[in-house]
Amino acid sequence: MLPYITLLLLCQLAGEIITRLAGLPIPGPVAGMVLLFLGLVVRGRVPPELEKTSQGLLRYLALLFVPAGVGVIAYLDLLSHALLPVAAAVLPGTLLTVAVTGLVMQRLGRAAGEKR
After folding, report:
1. How is residue 45 annotated by DSSP?
2. How far apart are CA 63 and CA 26, in angstroms?
3. Is the whole model's pTM more than 0.70, yes or no?
4. How many Å apart are CA 53 and CA 56, to the nearest integer?
5. Quick one: 43 exposed, middle or buried, by C-beta within 10 A (0-12, 13-18, 19+)?
6. What are the pLDDT digits (tens) for 75-103?
7. What pLDDT was estimated at residue 116?
């Protein structure tokens, strides 16, 4: 398990280095996730231990939302004064994300059905 946690952290570090050096406008962890994805595509499969490690981390993913929730509650007064701009930024982005995710899943589902 420890080698695969190290692998995940090294991918995140590599992504952080790449985005900083290249001045890319994306978060380093996202670039690291792309690097990990490309590595898995080249390998052709996900090692069982990496899958087990990832599932263990995903099981506790909800805990990462606790600090964000506390921040919202702590700054609720400030957010209430800026409710319209925040809603104008969050709602369209959320709707667009849901729509794009749905379309991607439909296409991937069709592609998987054709391969079988």
Report:
1. S
2. 24
3. no
4. 5
5. exposed
6. 999 888 999 998 999 999 999 999 999 99
7. 62
Q: What confidence category does residue 64 fall into, taking pLDDT thresholds of 50, 70 and 90? A: confident
Contacts of 50 (CB under 8 A, 6+ apart): 4, 7
Token match 């709602």: residue? 91
pLDDT surpassing 90 at residue 10: yes
Token pair 């052709």 in the structure block, residue: 44
User: Burial level of 11, CB count in 10 A (0-12/13-18/19+)?
Assistant: buried
How many CB atoms neighbour CB 90 within 10 A? 10
Q: Quick one: CA dihedral 82, 89, 95, 75, positive or negative?
A: negative
Residue-level length of the chain: 116
